[in-house]
Design brief:
Number of domains: 2
Order of helices and strands: EEHHHEEEHHHEHHEHHEEHH
Strand content: 15-25%
CATH superfamily of the largest domain: Uracil-DNA glycosylase-like domain
Helix content: 40-55%
Radius of gyration: 19 Å
Number of helices: 12
Shape: globular
Length: about 290
């Protein structure tokens, strides 16, 4: 798919190939923004050892790999789309979301967030290497080979990867690289990409969870309140996905706050609206089966 600034396509079950037109991200009237970006680019590139493997510059185009995992297989479970901030560079290179952290340990997202929240149980052999575990987990998610009330998809709000820690990490690191004004331009097109993903995966009804401030603010409907960390911690970010008012949007604390994040996930996914969606999904599936 192509926008004015961002174009992208899925090249395998997890990887996206993305291209940003820097002339559109930094219009001619914003010459200083482009100059600041160019001065910062090399430092950003050197901030993670994987960056040179996933980024490429071709003239005015920034080309890179990102990630999105949407299972094609169907069952009677309600679809749940987890919208994360932006990818870690090493996870993109490894070919799997949250491939590892620290000294190649299992990422807290799987162990301390999803599992305690009662969302997803992915059993595995603890003797597996990191690369083998990533491949195993990817296949489990794609084949719905796990214990869960939901059929789970994963996507990111900002497609540009960055280092998992340090001055260039996360969405804040991407904003530091391109500047706040350019970030708003990019977010407008990234929102269209996420909405396109949601329309395919969540329709006619489903649930989306935003794990990050920018994601919530960009994807919420106009009637929903703006993101505040306190509201996220208290489980008070409940709304509707823009352009898809039949889809429930929930906002939770960021994954770095694994305890509060897991707690709010568990709490929010027990609210009556979620139960109603689960009931409707099962009812629709039953009607299709009888046909």
């Amino acid at each position: 798919m192509s926008g004015v600034i961002l174009s992208y396509r899925q090249i395998d079950q997890v990887k996206l190939l993305c291209r940003i037109d820097l002339k559109q991200l930094f219009p001619a009237t914003k010459k200083r923004e482009r100059e600041r970006f160019e001065k910062k680019w090399e430092a950003f590139l050197e901030s993670d050892f994987c960056n040179r493997d996933i980024f490429k510059r071709e003239g005015d185009y920034l080309i890179y790999h990102s990630e999105q995992l949407i299972p094609m297989k169907l069952d009677n479970s309600p679809p749940l789309l987890l919208v994360l901030g932006n990818p870690a560079s090493h996870s993109v290179k490894e070919g799997m979301f949250f491939s590892f952290e620290g000294d190649k340990k299992e990422h807290r997202f799987w162990k301390h967030i999803l599992q305690p929240a009662g969302i997803l149980d992915l059993p595995y052999d603890k003797k597996l290497s990191v690369s083998a575990l990533n491949k195993h987990r990817k296949n489990q998610l794609l084949n719905l080979d796990y214990k869960s009330t939901f059929r789970i998809g994963l996507c990111v709000f900002i497609s540009i990867p960055s280092a998992p820690s340090g001055p260039w990490s996360g969405i804040a690191g991407i904003q530091k690289l391109i500047g706040a004004t350019a970030m708003r331009r990019l977010e407008a097109e990234e929102s269209l990409r996420v909405i396109e993903c949601a329309k395919k995966f969540l329709a006619p009804n489903g649930i989306a969870v935003a794990f990050q401030k920018n994601a919530w603010n960009a994807l919420r409907s106009s009637k929903d309140r703006e993101y505040k960390l306190g509201l996220a911690k208290d489980g008070k970010l409940k709304g509707r996905l823009k352009e898809m008012t039949n889809v429930l949007l929930l906002g939770v604390p960021p994954t770095r706050l694994s305890g509060p994040c897991s707690k709010m996930l568990r709490q929010l996914l027990k609210v009556p609206e979620v139960s109603n969606i689960a009931f409707l999904t099962g009812l629709i599936a039953g009607m299709h089966t009888r046909r």
